[in-house]
Structures are given as structure tokens and as C-alpha cells.
Amino acid sequence: MKKLFLLLIAFIFTAGAYAQSGTIMLSNDAQSAGRGGTSIGVFNSYEVMMSNPAGLSFVNNSSVNLNLSVMRSRTYFKNTLNDTYGETNYNPMPGLGYVHAAKKNSRWSWGIGGFTQGGMGADFNLKNALYVDDQGNYVRQKYHSQFAMMEFGPSLAYKISDKFSVGISAHLVYSMMEFQMPFGMNPGIMAGEAMPGKTFGQMFADSPAQGGFGYSEVIASANMNDLSVISWTGKMGLAYNPNGKWSFGLNFNLPTKLNFKDGKASMDMTAQFNDAFGKAVQGYMAQNPGSTSSEAMTAVSSQFDAMGINLNQGVAGNYNLNLKMKMPLSIGYGMSFQATSKLKLAMDIIWTNWANAFDKMEMKLSKGTNTNINTMLGAPGFTFNFPLNWEDNVTVKIGGEYLFTNRFTFRAGYAYNNNPVPSSTLFPIFPAIVENHLTAGVSYLVGKRVTINAAFERGFYKKQTAADPSAVQSEFSGSTSGLKTSIGHISFSYKL
After folding, report:
1. Own/partner long-range contacts of 73-76 (Cβ < 8 Å, ≥24 apart)
2. Which of 67, 245, 290, 295 is most buried by its number of CB atoms within 10 A?
3. C-alpha 292: how far from its chain's center?
4. 3-state SS, residue 271
5. Alpha-carbon distance 398 to 347, whole Å?
6. Mean pLDDT throughout 146-172?
């Protein structure tokens, strides 16, 4: 029941989310979203618990806050067999929080909140050269990913002086992951002995002249799910508010380890094995011109049986799955300037250390249920490092807000995030490649206590061509992936 409850929370908060800076949202509240996501040096929203907890010291009023964002993502993929858009997803991403402003003669402020931190995912039905029916028609395969994160916990700020404060956040992190697609691996992973002095990997990789099948990779239909983890992360911030015009902030986000345990995985090598069996039958008939196809199939079946492969048991099995990855360290600097009594300008610059976090996903599969696969692998499981090799990036946000009346505020902003995904590991269900974003928003004060904020954020269409050869698998070599996003935000703040 506890696990079901946590999965429900993850679905509500982060289902299918596309982040805007790698896998990280540009903003966590409609107010900052309207001005390009700037919030490290602007201290007027509960969002500072995520962007700079020291800013709590300069929030004027205690408040209860609720935010709802809805994202529309559009993905695209093209290779030699496909030229198609992925499924269009609409995903709700709520957040909530409470801020307790410092009381008179107190230097302490605090808050508690739950936030959508980010995520990534896509859905395609694609053609793959290996998957064809008896008539030679392609049987489309499901390509699906979903990675989602949310944070929840307290933040605390201490005002060292009237102008300077420090703050920390200690947040629980809940994350979930799903992954499904035809999975390409080097044949060398099959370390089981096929015959004296030769492994199954060598047999699958060797050329037909050497008695092999000539595969550069072997493919299994993989489906990995039921992966979830509860971890923690911390944030440290500094806030400096020297006068009524300028404010400055510095924020450190600590890296987060995500050790997913007790997940489930299935691996089906039927299509790959059928292709290999067909090649073996053709080879036998070429070496024995007078034989019929039935005689060749019987002879090849006997050869596989001698290798310990029982064809009646098929080549599909289930596994226990553990997966390790990390979310990155980041350092952000922000500032704001009250240019006039009505106009405020802001800027954030954030460096994110993706290279030490998204270098790989370490997958460990164990307790395989299919004896044929176990025989070919030489063990009931294996470890595979899925390459990501993301690069460090910098995000720059600029924005402003203009107070038209005492009740109505207009905001606008722009954010640029240089793409962290290298061409060598680009593939269509992890395409976090959007770079340019425009935002606009408004606020309206209802009465004395309630403020309604709304914003719209557009991530402009970005295409990228994968390297040839791809470090992921051959079907992605030279392919093109694309992504664009639109996000609507609305939030409510009630001053206590």
C-alpha cells in the first residue's frame, strides 16, 4: 500500500514531465515563470525554498501557496525507417508550500513545501529493421521512457544582519523511472560457452565465413518498470539585500544519488534469435544443396540443442533490476534591480555539473528466469552501463515585471539553456535538447490577501542529429530527434 501511494504521488506530480534545462524545470511557480524563471535574487515567493532558501529572510509576509503547471510536449524522430512525431502528452505538475516570515525581533524564517523538480519522457511507436512479420511488414515497437522527480521538505533561513542572510533546505526526493524499447547490446555480453573455445558472443559476432552470424549488436525487447526511490538532497543559499534597489543571491544544489532497487525487467530475444536461426538454416542449406528447409531446420535445432539451447523454452525472461544514476550539483547566481518604483529587472546564471551525474545509467539485472538466455549469457544476469555522457551546461535567465496598478503586474522573460545532450548519445526517448524559451505572465491582487499569478512558457522547437555511429545503438546512428514544449502555470498565494 505504501508503494502504491508513493507511485500515485509521483504520477500526480510528475507524470511524463519534460524539463526545460536538461531534466530540471526552469521555474517552480507561476510568478517566477512569467519573468523567465528568475528567482535566485528575487525574494518575493515561496519558490525561494527551491532556488535560494536564504531569500526566506526577506519575504515580507507569511503565506500559503499553491501552484499548478500543465505541460504539453511534442517530440519528433527520423531515421532510415521512420519519420514521425511521438505522442503529444499533457501533464499536470502541482506544487504547494507554506512560508513563515520572521516575526518582529526574530532573525529566523522558515518554510515547507512540495515541488515538481523535473523529469523527462517520450512515447513513440517505431519501425525497427529486426521486427517484421511473415509477409515482411514491419511490426512497430513501443519506445517509452519516463523519469520523474519531486522534492518535499523544510527550509530555514537566518538573518545575520538586516542586509545579509543564509539559508538551507533539506528535502526528501521521490523519483520513479520506466524504460521500454528494443535494446541493443554488444554481442560480447553473451559470455556463455557455445562450443569448446567459443562463446555465444563470438558466434553471434563472427562473420559467416568464420561460422558466425555477423551481428555487430544483439537486440532484445526490454521493458524496465517498477523503479522508484526515496532519497534526499540539500540546498544552501546566501542572500544580500543592501538597499531598496538591488538584491543578490547565491545558491548551491547538492548532487542527489538515485539508487533504484527492486525494479522489474523483461527481456525478449525472440526476434533476434529467429533471425539468427533463419541465417543458420540458410547456411546449412548452402552447405548441403540437396537438403529441404524442413531437414535444415531439424539439423539446426539439433545443433542448438547440443549447445544447451532448448528451443521449446523460447528466449524471453524476467529479471530483478537495480539501477543507479545521479542528479547533478549546480551553482546559481542571481540578482535583481528595482529600476523604477514600478519596474523590476532580474537575471539568473546557473552552472550544472551534468558530466559527473548523467555519465551513465548503471543497470544490474539478476535472477533471470529463462534458462536459454542464462546459458547464452553464462549467468542468470548481467550488468550494463547505458551511456549518456551528458556535458556540463549553463542556463541564463533574464526577466522583468512591471506594476501597472496596485493590483495588476505584467511579467516577461527569456531563458537560454545550452544543450547538455551530446550527439553521440542522442536518442528519441531522452531528448532534453530545448535551448530557447520565452515567457510571459501576470498577477492580480484579489482583495488584500489573495494573489492570482498566471504565466505561459514556450520552449522553441529544437532538432539535433545523432552521431554516426551512435554510442547507444545502431538504429540511432545519423538519426534526428526534435522537441518543443509549452507550459501553462497558475498559482494562488494567500497572505496570513
Report:
1. 73/16, 73/18, 73/122, 73/483, 73/484, 73/485, 74/461, 74/483, 74/484, 74/485, 75/122, 75/123, 75/124, 75/428, 75/431, 75/481, 75/482, 75/483, 76/428, 76/463, 76/480, 76/481, 76/482, 76/483
2. 67
3. 52
4. helix
5. 4
6. 96
Domain ranges of the chain: 2-185+223-269+318-495
330 phi, psi to nearest 5 deg:
-145, 150
Q: Measured between alpha carbons, how far is 374 from 165 in angstroms, rounded to an integer?
A: 59
Q: Which pLDDT band, with edges at 50, 70 and 90, does 366 fall under? A: very high
pLDDT bucket at 19, cuts 50 / 70 / 90? low
Spatial separation of the C-alpha atoms in residues 390 and 206, rounded to whole Å? 33
> CA dist 343 to 209, 246, 347, 455, Å?
76, 12, 14, 18
186, 187, 193, 195 alpha-carbon torsion, rounded to 10°: -150
Length of the chain: 496
Best CA proximity match to 42, nearest among 246, 340, 253 = 246
Q: What are 411's three cell numbers?
A: 511579467
pLDDT recorded at residue 116: 87
pTM, rounded to two decimals: 0.92
- CA–CA distance from 147 to each of 75, 227, 444 (Å)? 16, 10, 35
C-alpha cell at 232: 534526499
Q: What is the mean pLDDT of residues 325-334?
A: 96
Q: Does domain 2-185+223-269+318-495 have CATH number 2.40.160.60?
A: yes
Q: What is the pLDDT of residue 298?
A: 94
| pLDDT at site 20 | 64
